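Sequence in, structure out. Go.
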Amino acid sequence: MNPIMLFIHKTGSPPWFYQKTGYLIPWLWAIFLVLTAIGLYLGFVKAPVDYQQGTTVRIMYLHVPSAWMSMMIYGFMAIMGFIALVWRIRMLEVLVISSAPVGAAFTMIALLTGSMWGRPMWGTFWVWDARLTSELVLLFLYFGVIALYNAYDEPRKAARAASLLSIVGAFNLPIIYFSVEWWNTLHQGSSFGGDGPGIHPEMLWPLLIMATAVKFFYGANLLTRARLTLLKQDHRKRWVQDLVSEEH
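Output:
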């Protein structure tokens, strides 16, 4: 068998997935904690304040990575959901539903930190701006995926319904990304333009480190949730019973 196909076949096996990810998760958490400590120190202690925004600019070290992750995770959910529906790969169904709570959390953080930044900059916590409104729609889509999954008693049927909503909801991602270009919005445009990052290196590096750290957080959280979902779904199967017997 082709090595790539063999790897895909093994990954689709719940016992193999559970065993291998158990070794990986501690490393993901460790890298996340180290990068977060470095990023927060550089961003909140070493990085200079902005000449216009003052210390309020430090909110971006939480807001921007969270906003990026809110979109990235939903994009992954849509891709995994499509593959799961076409090829009926159960592990991808599990990853879709395991991603939703993490993506919803990042979206909420992005909205809350954005409101904290908006109060001193715009004079209000919230405006019905195109970027803010489309990000709020994204949060509702995450909630919809979670609610739809929990509305079914049969896990496979629930996961397929959630995967379908993930695919349909992906239309909102380009709206979020291009909203500042398509409409006249209060939200500032991207600092990463065609001529390179329009941000000072001492501010850029902490931002990039935090953006990398949250990806490891997503990976660790996703795999942990997926393992728990597998145990719940397969609690009557032999491999789970053998696992419980070994632990006792």
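Check: Strands lie at 192-193, 196-197. The chain has one domain: 62-247.
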